[in-house]
Amino acid sequence: MKRLKAMIALALLLTPSSFADEFKEKAKKIQTLYRNGMIAMNAGKAEEAKAAFEAVLKLSPGHGHARHQLTQIPTVNARVALQRRKALFKSTKIEKIHFANATLEEALEALNELTLEASAQKFAPNFVIQDPSGKLKNRKVTLKMNQVPVSVALNYILDGVGAAARLDLHATIVRSIAK
Questions:
Q1: 39, 42, 127, 178: most buried, per Cβ within 10 A?
Q2: What is the CATH architecture of 92-176?
Q3: Sign of the four-CA dihedral 154, 158, 161, 166
Q4: What pLDDT is attached to residue 26?
Q5: In the prediction, which pLDDT does 68 show?
Q6: What are the residue ranges spanned by the domains of the chain?
Q7: What is the DSSP annotation of 68-110?
Q8: CATH topology of domain 2-85
Q9: Can you list the residues of the chain whose pLDDT is less than 50?
Q10: Model's pTM, two decimal places?
């Protein structure tokens, strides 16, 4: 009987320690998963981040930070897509550009077509001119270049007419520079 009591006492002493160890291991795993999710988010790897945050929530359904980060994934996806779009402007090269006294609208339309051709129909700048005051309407562009990235050609066109561009996810917005 003494031996049984001793074993029960020993078991009772070890049990809380075992639960504490389990709890610590689970907390460490949650922390690691969450950190990995944040690293993936910052690297623009939305699917990896989503998987990590969902794993955190399986282990700890009330984990508010992981739940919040899941709501941020669409923003990360949009940021990554915009970065890809900006990279295409820099990496897509136009073989030959020659505009002589073209309007801004004509030059941008031609640049859009040349970009589609250079990218094998995979990328179009989709220019949208926002010029309610009409400052850009009659501006003329003359440009002659070879083997130039779209971004460089666009900068020369816009500088020549006093305009600037903002890249959005699906379009390139062109506006007059206030002077």
A1: 127
A2: 3-Layer(bab) Sandwich (3.55)
A3: positive
A4: 83
A5: 94
A6: 2-85, 92-176
A7: HHHHHHHHHHHHHHHHHHHHHHHH-EEEEEEEEEEEHHHHHHH
A8: 1.25.40
A9: none
A10: 0.71
